[in-house]
Amino acid sequence: MFIIQSMTHATVLIVITVYVLLFLSLKRNPLYPFHAAGVFVQELFTNRKFMLHLLGIVVILFFNKIEITLENSMKQHSDFTPSVFGLEGDFVAVFQRLFENDLLTSFLTFFYVVVFPAVMIASIGIYAYQRNFKLFYAVCYALMINYMIAIPFYLFFPVTEVHAFNPNVKFLMLDAFPTFENEYRPLSDLDNCFPSLHTSISVTMAMIALKSKNGFWKVFAPACAAIIIFSIFYLGVHWLTDMAAGTVLGLLAARIALRLSEGKTLFVGSRVGVKKRNMDSKW
Fold it and tell me: Which residue numbers delimit the Phosphatidic acid phosphatase type 2/haloperoxidase domain (predicted)?
């Protein structure tokens, strides 16, 4: 079984995976991933709009960290996990028993811990290198929207991960990443479960990738989203309800982000109203 030894080990694997994804996406030239990094740095220092969008992602990730601190300090803490369990029962436990295998555990842990963040980073690198700023901005908007909608749920609608509530579910993540609870857990509380951000962000990246002209990325990003969704059940992390909410959030975030990146209004009615006012002004 392949074992992730620590977060340092995971970080090294993420860097290598980003390089491989850029290599496969950018004409398969071993130098192109470095060119992509160079273009990214150049745009960061010469393109103010580019820099501000990246800053927006940093800010929302900072607020995500604050949410964890704030939640831990809240005196009244509701728990909606029993309601979710009553709704879907042992679905995840049955799902696990059907597929449990050491090789699959290693593979899915790698996707959950390593490939998931690598896809976000590679998406930014690909669109920046190709100067497809519409999709680059869409990724930035979508990540911010995903977190902005999810964080209030984590504060006021806490749902505990399946393995921590249902004794019939194993936390298979620990088999392939033994230090997960000590090193990865500070990034996300045990009850930051509904909606599943692993699902929503993966779906979002897939939907935006389908708008690109990169043949490899249009296939890989959706395939990765499917594997991530499979992994959240198999590893014993999320409920079916989390996945359903995450899918809706991912689709919504992608749609809004793409419209914003194209300079379109969010609602057709508002566009009609603007057009009508413009026509009225002529008279």
Answer: 151-258
Q: What percent of the chain has pLDDT over 70?
A: 90
Which among 173, 24, 58, 44 is positioned nearest to 112, based on CA atoms? Answer: 173
Show the tokens assigned to 106: 């290693």
Is 90 exceeded by the pLDDT of residue 6?
yes
Does position 275 have pLDDT exceeding 80, yes or no?
Answer: no
C-alpha distances (whole Å) from 189 to each of 87, 186, 205, 217, 229 are 23, 7, 23, 31, 19
User: Mean pLDDT over residues 90-103, rounded?
Assistant: 96
Q: What residue spans of 74-196 are helical by DSSP H? A: 81-88, 91-99, 102-110, 116-129, 133-156, 162-165, 173-176, 180-183
Q: Are 221 and 138 in contact (CB under 8 A)?
A: no
Radius of gyration of the chain (CA): 20
Q: What pTM was estimated for this model as a whole?
A: 0.88
